[in-house]
Model the fold of this input.
Amino acid sequence: MSGFPIFPGEASTQAVSTDHITAGLTVLAAIIVLVVFGLVVGFAFRYRNGSRAKRGDLPEWVARDVEIGWTAATAFLALFIVWWTIAASLGSLAPQPGAMEIHVLAKQWMWKTEHPNGAREINALHVPMGEPVRLMMTSQDVIHSFYVPQFRIKQDVLPGRYTHTWFEATKLGTFHLFCTQLCGTEHARMVGDVVVMRPEDYARWSAAQPQGDDIAADGASLFHTLGCAGCHLGSAVHAPQLAGLYGKPVQLADGRSVVADDAFIRDMILKPKANVPAGYEPIMPSFSGLVGDDEILALTAYIRSLKDARETRG
Done:
């Protein structure tokens, strides 16, 4: 479909599968339209006023079997389309293991991105070609939407929670980034560029950027500055140990069991009394209003980096 000028070119692995679905549904819809149109024209001509075509009621069994047949065929076709599109879409939702993680913070009216080594950009995102990239996104104010037409990816970016998407670029070049959610008076200017580079060029570009600590190191520093280490890292205070926590199930005091993912960690930072782990007192203070979205991203990255009890960097 990329040969037609009305469609943007394909520049990611997701674009190929998305265009296959679009092409399949378009062809199927065209076939159905042609069949229905052909029947309408054919019957209109055959049974036109003055024709000698035999008229009269069909036998009851014929009318019943035809009705059941076309209804069943339509139902099976609809179920097949649902199965096919869901199966194809779900296959592209989860990023490959080891994907490069980039944090995206949306705000009126700009995109702020941060690379694993701490390099930051505004309204731009440089990525290597052929390498899976996972975007962890949140909004500082209102709902935005991250959309790159050539990649066929579009994901809402919401305040107060994380959303994720991923892509693997297959072509070099600069591709436009848009916000597709009306987000205020300057919505039309909330644009940017995704620059796809050869891996070796990206490595040189990344090394040349002003860099601070990586995201996890920033989180480690903030973790100690806020006093979190006093309770959670080898303290006498009865508080959950964070090493090895990420991605594991957590039993809560109210009987629920949740997975310690990005959303859970965010809630524990901002609303700790909503999810009290079983066996612990609700003594953790809320940091709502004390830390921003970018700092929560850094704290989450640090906790995620604590693989086992020996890894307590900072």
Remarks:
- The chain has a mean pLDDT of 82.
